[in-house]
Every structure is written in C-alpha cells, then in structure tokens.
Design a protein that fits this description.
Blueprint: H1 3-20, H2 24-48, E1 49-51, H3 55-60, E2 98-102, E3 105-110, E4 115-121, E5 125-131, E6 142-148, E7 159-165, E8 171-177, E9 184-188, E10 191-196, E11 201-206, E12 211-217, E13 225-232, E14 235-240, E15 245-252, E16 260-270, E17 273-278, E18 281-286, E19 291-295, E20 302-307, E21 316-324, E22 327-334, E23 349-354, E24 360-365, E25 372-376, E26 407-408, E27 413-414, H4 440-452, E28 455-457, H5 458-463, H6 472-476, H7 482-493, E29 499-503, E30 509-511, H8 513-516, E31 527-532, H9 536-544, H10 552-558, E32 560-563, H11 566-572, E33 576-584, E34 591-593, H12 596-612, E35 620-628, E36 633-637, H13 642-645, E37 647-655, E38 660-664, H14 666-673, E39 687-688, E40 695-699, E41 705-709, E42 715-723, E43 730-732, E44 736-741, E45 744-746, E46 752-754
Parallel strand pairs: 32-44, 34-43
Antiparallel strand pairs: 1-4, 2-3, 2-25, 3-4, 5-6, 6-7, 7-8, 9-10, 10-11, 11-12, 13-14, 14-15, 15-16, 17-18, 18-19, 19-20, 21-22, 22-23, 23-24, 26-27, 28-29, 29-30, 31-40, 33-34, 33-35, 35-42, 36-41, 37-40, 37-42, 38-39, 38-41, 43-46, 44-45
C-alpha cells in the first residue's frame, strides 16, 4: 500500500480513537451538527441558483416559433439565432439576461436556459431597476433598486434606494428616499427620477449620491403615477394609472414658473403600465385587458400587438416591460387581493412577443414569489425600461424609418405610421415598416442596399463588378488613391472584409456595429474608406489658431475641461494634446458641446454634412482634435468605452506627413482568440493604413491600433464619434470643469445650457 494511503488511514484512525472517548450523547450531538451543516450548504447553493421546476411543463405549451428564436432578428441580420427553445446568441457576448423585480424578490433571469440567479429577497417590495457603477469595459458592476414595505398592513413607512453588486447581490449602499408606495425609479445620466405614488409626485435625484434635487407634485393619489420615462433631455413622460382609463403625460421640469404637464395622450389602456419608446411609438401594457399595445404619441391611436386569451381563467394582469432586439418582454400576473401579492406561491409568467409580427415567441412561469413589477435589462444600458435596447448594449438602432414622417414635438423624435394590409397570422391593424423614403436619392440608395443584402459584405460587392474582382470602385468609395485601394484589398485578402449595415443620410455606408461589438470585432472589417474632402478652410483655422489654445490651462479658462481621464491618456497617449468640441459619457446618451465648438463651427459643420449628411449631424457624440508632437507615439490599444460600443469612429487627417504612420493590428487579437501565445505587440504585427490630409475613414476602433509620428511636425487629426440615433446636446459655459465619475460626466448644473435653437 502506498505510504500516503497508510498515513491517511493512520490519521483517520487516530481521530477515531479520540472520538471513542466521547460520551454516546456527545457523539450523537456531533453527528447531528455535521448533518445539519451539510443541509445548510445544500439549501444555500439552491437559493443562489434556482432552476425553474415548472420549465419542462411550461415549455411544452410554448409557441412553435420559440423553437426558432427567442429574440427577433434585427434589420441588420447580424444576430445569430440559436436553434434551441428560447435561445438567442449575440456573437461573442455574455448570455442575454433580464432583471426581474417582484413583491418579494430581485433576480436575474436567463431566457437562454430558463434559469434564475437571485440577488435579494425576503425584505419587501421591489420596484425600479437601473445600472450603477460600470468598469473600464463599460460592463455593469452594480445595480440600483427600490425596496419598500408591502402596502398591506406595513410595519414601517421607510423606503430605500439600494445598490447591489450586480453578480453577488451584496449590498453596497442604501439611501432612504422620502417617498411612499414608490412604483418606479429610472436613471438618465446624472439624474434619477422616482415615482412617489402616494404623494402624486415625481422626484428628481442627483446620481450617484441620490440627493434630492426637487420634488414635482403634479398629480393626486388617485391618478396613481406608476411609470417614468425620461425620453427627452430635461423632460419626463409618466403613465397615470387612474385606477381605470389611463393616460401618458409629458412633464417639463424646467417650465416657467414651475414644472408642469405640457402634453398628454389620453386613454392608452385600463390600469396601464410601462412605456418604452420604439420606432416612434410607445410600447405599453393595457394591463387590465391583458394586452400589449403600441401608442402613436402624435395621434393617440392605440394598436393591439398581442392579447392574452380572453378565455383564460383566472384572467391575467400585465406588468413590467422591456424591449430588446425588437422583442417585448413583459410579466403576466394573476391579480388578487393585496394580502396575497407577496405570497411565495404567487409565481408570475414572463412572455416574449415579436413586435414586428405580433407572434408570441414563448411564455413561461418564473419563480417570482410575488407579483412581478419590473422587467429590465440594466446591463445593456440605463434606459432599458423606457427605450428599446440592443442585446449588444445601448439603445437599439432606429432600423427602417417609417415611410411617412410626422413631426412630433412631444417626443423629440419622428413619429410616423404607415399601415398596409396585413398578411395571414398578423394582428389586425399591424403596422409594417418600410424603407426610408425621405428623398428620391435616399430611396434609390435603400433599394440598392436591399438588393445587395442588409448586411453588406463590401468585398463581395466589389467582386461582382466588371473588373472581375478588382476592388477599386466598391472599396475606394470616393477615395481614388492607389495606396488606399491596395491597403484595403490587402486587409480583404487577409479575411477582413468591411461589413456594413445601413447608411448615413449622406448615402455613405457605415460598419456593422453589432459585429464590431462582438468578441471577434475584426469580423466587421478594419477600415472603411469613405471620401475625400476639401479641408483648406479647416487647416488654415487650425494652423492659424493661437498655440496656447491647446494648453490645458487655457482650455480650463476659455473652453471646458473633463477631470478624471488623465491616467488613461498618460498611459496610452503620452505627448498627445486634445482639444474637445463635443464630448459625452460612456453611455453616449449625454452629450455636451464645448465652447471651442463655436470657434471651428464654420469650418467643421460643412464637412460633417458632407460625411454623414445634414440630417445626421445631430448624432455626433464626440468631436475632438488630437495633436501629436514630433517623435511621439500612441501606444497599441483598443477603444473599449461606450463611445466605441455605441458609435462609429471617423478619422479625418488635418495636418499630417508621410512619416506619420497609422497602423492596425488585427492579427494580434485573432491569434490570441485561437489560443495561441502572442508576444507584446510590435509594429511588425501591424499594417499601415494610408491617411493623407482630407481623406475620411471609418475605423473599427475596437481592433488594436497605434500611431507613430516620426516626422518633425505636429500631426493633427479630427476624430468624430457618431451614433446611429440622434442626441440632444447641451452647451457648457466657458471655464466649466466636469468630472468623469464612474463613466458619467457630472457638470455643474449652473454651467449647463440648452443647445442652440
């Protein structure tokens, strides 16, 4: 027998001899304690990760369409759909998950495998879910949630906003709020809005300290404000339950002399809940009637998208709404007396409905252990309960615009409806969305896109030409330069064909954001040459400006400054001077226009209109000049912030030299993804991208890149980040200093002005 085995037996025998000297009663107590400990750890593991015991029974009753997908395919076609029940896969991303908040429990729900992960339970009623801290990769670290006492014989009146670790459920922070029977809490940038239902009030708090900024008492208890949606910058939509026929109203907190309701949409449903902005409409829950509806805010028209069978007994009450990848996720509750709403036996259902077809994808019983109140996806962004989201993160792209456009001042977006005869299986009155037809030229461009496929492979388009495979016409895209064409073709030959999805208003294509944001970001392509522009006026302005305007000291006086980003700049971009004209936080939802924008406006705006089109200039989320001193370098790096995730990076060299080298290094990442060891990145691993003055490129900045300035001049590059949805920028006064706190820009409110009319 091996020595180790003998020694082990010796130790066991030695321990047993000691136990023999214990009394029979002591040995019995010890055995009971040991067994109890095993049971405790078994129960603990089950409470952390629970598989729905009803899932097998429930899945047998699911709609056949759920075997094909659980999330709708977006208009780009970029999403891969797993052919398993309820399975949807975004290439390279974490499993898609939702947070559900009930009358007893806060937990993650995974549609892909119908499982849950409990964060908190047993303390009270949960309402309102929004993200807190994020890490350097824009991944959510903490989540905020309202916990309030049950309104059936409550033992306390105290209500709290509680911050939890998003993975473990560990409590990080707890702030008491002066609210009663809170029914919602949402976040937009550095503001949090709370529905104080008993007080008929919408409270505005400052994020992240949650200090009260103001309370807006606009309603009565009977009106029962229950859902908030800060869709516009500085304005909030609210749903008024009204204990019957419900309304959606728009609040202007900045109205003179006091906050007031400035718009309303009457009779959106009975005891309605939820309001998610999707394609110019409000997706809402007609709760009492068990219906999912779309409301046109311009006309007030209500269309039924899906209806729970009227023959169901007991009937269902809908509550909790989130839209991801064109799919509405919402709760179906069995309505009962208040005393039963936190019962551990009261488990709600969760349904998924394709908004484009009205088809029920699946419907499952979930272990909510109480009335289901909120369905959210805070890991995708702060707006997950009031805007349609993309599973890759952030607000979903607009997709196809409606063919008839009606300006709607109440939403700040185009609300446009075009009804066409519906086909078999479609809900009556459904709306089909057509290609964008804002002008004859854009219509032709869209038809061309449709013919080639929504997700265009630029390499394949090139090979279909008369030249039998030479990529010049399709790839140059307005840059008739042999070096650019050769470099682009080299990348294609290596397997990096540009994949595009959609076009700017100018008609120029753009890379597919969903592929760019996948784990294999290089599959979207590396560089997309767009056009050549005349930069004479801009170059003259840049070279003629006082050199002191580049200094941080002068910018803090005359422009504006953002503190909290110096470490990152020094790490990757030593020797690079930045001059900001437009800046945003990680979410790209909160955009600030800096005072120096006005200095360059006359030269910059005509160029932006050429590149993305006049209609899309309002989608710019960041705009800056980067000046590299002679002999400096921008070290190899990947851009991982929200600006890389939710926007397109466009480069325009303003002052450069042949001895300035812009290089991309996709092979380093691709080899690493295959499990191969890769040494530190060097220039031999990278390929140069020719960039002469006036050439406009979209760069996939999620792929590793670097810049070397081996010339004796100061190289100046204009860098623009453009989202696919419009933004409402705010202006900063000269001398404003903002803090970049946990990826959120916090600026003194007295220094923030609305954008130019």
């Amino acid at each position: 027998m091996p020595a180790t085995s003998t020694a082990s037996r010796s130790r066991v025998g030695h321990a047993y001899k000691h136990l023999k000297f214990l009394s029979p009663r002591a040995r019995k107590l010890l055995s009971i304690s040991f067994a109890a400990g095993l049971c405790f750890f078994a129960l603990l593991s089950l409470s952390i990760y629970v598989k729905d015991p009803d899932s097998i029974r429930t899945r047998k009753n699911e709609d056949r369409s759920s075997q094909r997908r659980s999330l709708a395919v977006s208009s780009t076609g970029a999403k891969r759909i797993g052919r398993q029940k309820g399975m949807s896969v975004s290439s390279g991303n974490k499993p898609f998950r939702l947070i559900l908040a009930s009358h007893n429990r806060l937990f993650w729900y995974y549609p892909g495998n119908d499982s849950i992960h409990v964060l908190h339970e047993g303390e009270g009623v949960h309402y309102g879910v929004f993200p807190g801290e994020v890490d350097n990769n824009a991944q959510m670290k903490t989540v905020w949630n309202v916990i309030r006492p049950h309104n059936w014989h409550p033992k306390t009146s105290q209500e709290f906003l509680v911050q939890f670790d998003a993975e473990t459920g560990r409590e990080v922070n707890r702030v008491r709020i002066e609210s009663r029977f809170t029914h919602d809490a949402v976040r937009r940038g550095d503001r949090v809005y709370v529905a104080n239902t008993e007080g008929g009030e919408v409270q505005e708090l400052h994020f992240p300290d949650m200090k009260l900024v103001r309370g807006m008492r606009l309603f009565t208890l009977k009106q029962h404000v229950n859902t908030l949606a800060p869709l516009d910058d500085g304005a909030v939509w609210a749903v008024l339950h009204n204990l019957g026929k419900s309304d959606a109203v728009k609040i202007d907190p900045n109205a003179d002399p006091r906050p007031r309701v400035v718009a309303e949409v009457k009779e959106v449903g009975l005891k309605a809940h939820g309001l998610v902005f999707w394609r110019g409409q409000f997706v809402m829950l007609d709760s009492e009637n068990g219906a999912l509806v779309a409301v046109d805010p311009a006309t007030g028209a209500v269309r039924h998208l899906w209806q729970a069978p009227q023959t169901e007994d007991p009937p269902k009450f809908l509550k909790g709404l989130c839209v991801v990848d064109e799919v509405a996720y919402f709760g179906l509750n069995v309505w009962g007396p208040r005393s039963d709403r936190d019962s551990l036996e009261n488990n709600a259902e969760l349904a998924a409905v394709d908004l484009n077809t009205g088809a029920l994808l699946w419907r499952r019983t979930v272990q909510t252990r109480g009335l289901l109140n909120i369905v959210a996806a805070p890991g995708l962004g702060e707006a997950s309960t009031y805007r349609a989201m993309a599973s890759t993160g952030g607000v979903a792209e607009a997709g196809f615009a409606p063919s008839t456009t009606t300006s709607d001042s109440s939403t700040g977006n185009a609300a446009a409806i075009t009804a066409t005869p519906h086909g078999d299986g479609e809900a009556a009155g459904r709306t089909r969305y057509l290609g964008q037809e804002t002008s004859s030229s854009s219509k032709q461009q869209h038809q061309g896109l449709k013919a080639a496929g929504t997700n265009q492979d630029m390499g394949k388009v090139a090979r279909s030409g008369k030249d039998g495979g030479k990529a010049k016409d399709a790839l140059a895209l307005g840059i008739n330069d042999t070096e650019v064409i050769a470099a682009t073709q080299q990348l294609i030959d290596m397997g990096y064909r540009p994949k595009t999805s959609g076009r700017w208003a100018s008609g120029r294509p753009r890379l597919d954001l969903k592929i760019k944001n996948s784990r294999q970001s290089w599959d979207a392509g590396i560089s997309l040459p767009l056009m050549q522009v005349n930069i004479d006026k801009l170059k003259e302005l840049v070279l003629g400006m006082p050199d002191e305007m580049w200094s941080p000291e002068r910018q803090r006086r005359e422009n504006a400054a953002v503190d909290g980003r110096k470490d990152n700049m020094n790490k990757f971009k030593p020797g690079v001077e930045a001059l900001y004209m437009v800046f945003s936080d990680q979410s790209t939802e909160h955009v600030y226009r800096f005072p120096y924008y006005d200095y360059f406006k006359s030269a910059i705006e005509p160029l932006l209109e050429q590149i993305v089109g006049k209609e899309d200039v309002n989608k710019v989320v960041r705009l800056q000049f980067a000046r590299m001193k002679p002999g400096t370098e921008i070290k190899p790096h990947q851009d991982m912030g929200g600006y890389a995730k939710f926007a397109h990076r466009i480069h325009l060299p303003v002052v450069t030299n042949p001895n300035v080298s812009f290089q991309v290094c996709p092979e380093v990442e691709r080899q690493a993804s295959l499990g191969r060891r890769v040494a530190a990145t060097s220039t031999k691993d990278c390929l140069p991208i020719p960039m002469a003055e006036g050439m406009v490129f979209e760069l996939n900045n999620r792929v590793m890149h670097l810049v070397l300035n081996r010339s004796n001049l100061k190289r100046v590059q204009m860098v623009v980040d453009v989202a696919e949805e419009p933004r409402v920028p705010r202006r900063l006064k000269p001398g404003t200093v903002c803090n970049y706190d946990h990826a959120v820009m916090v600026c003194p409110q007295e220094n923030v002005l609305p954008d130019y009319p």
